[in-house]
Design a protein that fits this description.
By secondary structure, this protein is mainly alpha-helical. It has a single domain, classed as Cobalamin adenosyltransferase-like (Hypothetical Protein Ta1238, Chain: A). It contains five helices and four strands, in the order ββαααβααβ. The strands form two sheets. Strands 1-2 form a two-stranded antiparallel ribbon. Strands 3-4 form a two-stranded antiparallel sheet. β1 and β2 form a beta hairpin. The relative contact order is 0.16. The C terminus is likely disordered. Its EC number is 2.5.1.17. One of its GO terms (biological process) is cobalamin biosynthetic process. This is Corrinoid adenosyltransferase. It holds the Pfam family Cob_adeno_trans.
Length: 192
């Protein structure tokens, strides 16, 4: 099998149900999901330590779900097969709660970073937010289910919570944004 087809040499690409320009918002959206998946793979490669077996297995699960998400976003017709299930959103919510309870209380905004693995998770979080913004743009021009949008929203929260837990387990403190007021009152476990 050849890896190149030459069918995209004039700026068009196949989506499920047709052909569109390569800069179409649909292509940008699922392309950003692919980029996100790559950054998660990079973070996963850094988490070989047994202390992170839970996060590692979850990230692998998430990589498969991101393929499902990208596939769903590539359907021109809203009636196409849907692979990403609502249970994936519920799973992320459950894990966010677990990691929020494990990490130290959060009162101020923090800077992305700490360990290399946490930094990769923060990069993935920002790419998830970009994918979410593109999904919103796609929803304005095309019929699509809301599950991919909800999934991307929760995934960015999950990646934030996981990055904080990685640093915590490595005994690396989050770096607070030095000009931040106390913005998280009460439980202090809210997302950034």
């Amino acid at each position: 099998m050849k890896l190149y087809t030459k069918t995209g040499d004039k700026g068009k690409t196949h989506v499920i149900g047709g052909r569109v320009d390569k800069d179409d918002v649909r292509v940008q959206c699922y392309g950003t999901v692919d980029e996100l998946n790559s950054f998660i793979g990079l973070a996963l490669a850094e988490l070989g330590d047994e202390r992170f077996s839970d996060i590692g297995s979850e990230l692998l699960k998430i990589q498969h779900e991101l393929f499902d998400c990208g596939g769903d976003l590539a359907y021109v017709s809203p009636n196409g097969e849907k692979k990403l299930k609502e249970e994936a959103v519920a799973f992320l919510e459950e894990r966010i709660d677990v990691y929020s309870d494990e990490a130290p209380e959060l009162e101020k905004f923090i800077l992305p970073g700490g360990s290399k693995a946490a930094a990769y998770l923060h990069v993935a979080r920002t790419v998830a937010r970009r994918a979410e913004r593109l999904a919103v743009a796609l929803m304005k021009t095309a019929d699509m289910r809301e599950t991919p949008l909800r999934y991307l929203n929760r995934l960015s929260d999950y990646l934030f919570a996981a990055a904080r837990v990685v640093n915590f387990r490595l005994d690396i403190k989050d770096v607070e944004y030095e000009r931040s007021a106390i913005v998280f009152k009460g439980s202090g476990k809210r997302k950034q």
